[in-house]
Amino acid sequence: MSEPATNAEREQAILDAASALITHYGYDKTTVEDIAQQAGVAKGTIYLHFRSKDDLFSALIAREAQRVAERSFALIDADPEGVTVYTIFRYGWQAMQENPLLRAVYVRDRRVLGDYVRRLASLPQFSQMVSLSGEFIQHFQRLGLIRADLDPDALLYVLTSFRYGLLVGDAVVPLSRTSVETVGEVISKLLASGIGPQGDSAKSEEGLRILRDLYAKGLEFMRANGRQASKDSNPGSGTI
C-alpha cells in the first residue's frame, strides 16, 4: 500500500485505520504499529500527527462527533418539516446508530474502549455536553419548539437518561427485530407529542441556527480539550 501523499490525507488515513481497528478489536488490543500498518504509513509518521495513542483517539472522537453532527443536519435539511423535536431526535438517533465507535464512547462500552473508559469520566468534554444540552432546552423553550411549562433541569435529566438508555437498549432487545428508521420514528413521535409543539417556519430556521451553533461550540471544545489532555499527560502516555 502506498503512503498517502499529503499531510491531510495521511492524517485522515490514520484516523480511518484507528476507527476500523478499535471498533473491531478494541482500544487496548490496537497498537500504534497496527494503525500504521492499516493506514499504509510508517509508525513514526503517526507521531508527526499525534503525540500519543490517547491523542490520536481524542482526535478520532472529535472527528466522529463532527460526522454525526453533519449527518444529522443533512437529514434535517432534507426534511420539509425543518427543525422540530421530532426531526432532531429522529435523525440524531439515526446518525448515532450509523457510527458504532461514537456510540461506544457515549455508552462507555468496555469491549471497545477497554481501560480508556476510566478516563472518560474525568474528561471535561462530557460535562460540556450536559451544559450544551441545557442550553438547547432553554433556547428551544424560548422559541416554542419545546413546551415552556416543563422544568428545564428535570427535562435535561430525563432526556439525558433517555438518550443513554436508547444507546444500550440493543443489549436487551436486539435492534435486528426492527429497524433503525422505525425505532427512530417511534422515539421521535413519543418525544414530539410529549415535550413540545412544532414551531412555525421562522422559529424553525432560528432553531436550526442555534442547533448548529451549539454543535460547533461542542466540537471546538472537544478538539481543544482533547489536545490539552494529551499535552498534560506524559509524552509516552497511551502509546503501545
What does this 3D model show about the protein?
This protein has 240 residues and is mainly alpha-helical. The protein has one domain (65-232). The chain is 72% helix and 0% strand. The chain has helices at residues 7-25, 32-39, 43-49, 53-78, 85-97, 100-107, 110-113, 117-120, 124-143, 152-168, 180-195, 201-232. It is globular. The model is unreliable at 233-240 (pLDDT under 50).
Can you lay out the helices and strands and say which pair or pack?
Elements: H1 7-25, H2 32-39, H3 43-49, H4 53-78, H5 85-97, H6 100-107, H7 110-113, H8 117-120, H9 124-143, H10 152-168, H11 180-195, H12 201-232
Helix pairs in contact: 1-2, 1-4, 2-3, 4-5, 4-12, 5-11, 9-10, 9-12
Number of helical segments?
12
Percent of sequence in beta strands: under 5%
Number of strands: 0
In the predicted model, the low-confidence regions spanning at least 5 consecutive residues are 233-240
Per the principal axes of the C-alpha atoms, what is the gross shape? globular
Structural class: mainly alpha
Give the termini distance in whole angstroms.
23 Å
| SSE topology string | HHHHHHHHHHHH
What do the pLDDT scores average to? 82
Count of the domains: 1
- Percent of residues in helices comes to over 70%
Q: For the report, how would you describe the main beta sheet? A: none
Rounded radius of gyration (Å): 19 Å
